[in-house]
Amino acid sequence: MPANLTPDYFEAEKAFKAAKEVNAKIEALQWMLRVIPKHKGTDRLQGDLKRKLAKLKSQGEGSKAGARKGYEYHIDHEGAGQVVVLGLPNTGKSKLLASLTRAAPEVTDYPFATRKPLAGMMPFENIQIQLIDTPPIDDEFMEPWLPPMVRNADAALLMIDCTGELLAGVDVVIDRLRAAKVHLRGARPSEKLDVGHVEKRVIVAANKIDEPGATENLEAFMDLYGDAFDVIPISLQEGRNIDQLKQSLFDILEIIRVYTKTPGKKPDLASPFICRRGDQVLDLAGKIHKDIRRTFKSARIWSGGKYDGQLVQRDHVLADGDIIEVQA
Questions:
Q1: How many CB atoms lie within 10 A of CB 244?
Q2: What is the secondary structure of 124-148 as a DSSP string?
Q3: In the chain, is it the N or the C terminus that has fewer CB atoms within a 10 Å radius of its CB?
Q4: Between helices 214-225 and 166-179, what is the axis angle to 10°?
């Protein structure tokens, strides 16, 4: 069976081959395992990657330098996707995490209160999205373990302060991460990246839009960056545009929710399968069980009034909210 490896996988493989340090190799292997298609054709390759990962982790645990670089700060993916929250000091990152999740970060009026990453789960409709609060980045310092964490995440949220220097709030973070071979981008992908470089989708949350002078600052900022990034003005104090922010976080993950049913029974609408945009019915079959993918014959689909139980082939492209009955 062909492996049908994806562009994401090959990008991760490039990063692995270009990595010089054990920590960077581990991050790249974890990335490869996360994006590799899960089916019988990749079973052997998955096994090889896991053996390499175990070997490298044993080397890293025996190295003081590796421990000092912060592998205790690696956070496993949970929920439908992982979003790293970035920004300068006092932009509201910790307050955002406290507002949108059940996590309890230390929220203060002074900078650099956050020293370690903290994860929380943000409810969005019937799924959970993992947010990670991180220490601030400024023009003098960035935690050395932060770029690998962004590299391993699915997307990023960049917080800026509408009452401060908005351009600096974006430029400092983007430039520091770019120097570490991690590129933040808007909706349009870069034309070409050097080997070992990766890019991550980002949306910009412009906080404190309720403060005096904030609207004028944001308008000037949008004249320069409005075409490059999706910018959402928010107020954590007033709760303004928070639902729009949640929707945007879901959108940049580029995922869809697909539901399954068995013949003669109602679909399970409480626990969707999380698929990538562009995934086909055969990809869903593999997520249900690798044997179902192997024996897959056909499927029936119900989809927002467009389909009402029609038979579809294995290459039918799925959409958010589809209900699928797999005929194995």
A1: 13
A2: ETTEEEEEEE-----SS---TTHHH
A3: N
A4: 40
Q: What share of the chain has pLDDT > 90, as a percent?
A: 44
Question: Where residue 25 falls among pLDDT bands split at 50, 70, 90?
Answer: confident
| Residue 188 CB neighbours (<10 A) | 8
Enter the tokens of residue 127.
């799924």
Residues 201 and 229 in one domain: yes
The answer for residues whose C-beta is within 8 angstroms of residue 316's C-beta and 6 or more apart is: 280, 281, 299, 301
Local structure of 41: helix, strand or coil: helix
Task: Give the pLDDT of residue 109.
Answer: 54
**Alpha helices of 104-260 — where are they, by DSSP H?**
146-152, 166-179, 214-225, 242-252
How many Cβ atoms sit within 10 Å of the Cβ of residue 144? 12
Task: For residue 117, tell me if it sits in a domain.
Answer: yes
Domain assignment present for 2: no
- Long-range pairs of 176-180 with CB within 8 A, sequence gap ≥ 24: 176/137, 176/142, 177/86, 177/137, 177/142, 177/147, 177/150, 180/142, 180/147
Q: How is residue 256 written in tokens?
A: 């869809």
H helices within the chain, ranges in order? 7-18, 22-35, 43-61, 64-68, 93-100, 146-152, 166-179, 214-225, 242-252, 281-288, 290-295
Indicate which CATH number applies to the domain containing 262: 3.10.20.30
The one-letter amino acid at 53:
L
Give the long-range contacts of residues 67-71, CB within 8 A, separation 24 or more: 69/23, 69/144, 69/145, 70/143, 70/144, 70/145, 71/23, 71/26, 71/145
Q: Which two tokens stand for residue 163?
A: 């009452």
Find out whether 171 and 95 touch, Cβ atoms under 8 Å. Answer: no
Residue 128 belongs to domain with CATH number: 3.40.50.300
Q: What is the pLDDT of residues 198-223, one digit of tens each?
A: 999 999 999 999 999 999 999 988 98
Rounded to whole angstroms, how far apart are CA atoms 84 and 153?
7
C-alpha to C-alpha distance for 37 and 3, rounded to whole angstroms: 8
Q: What is the pTM of this model?
A: 0.76
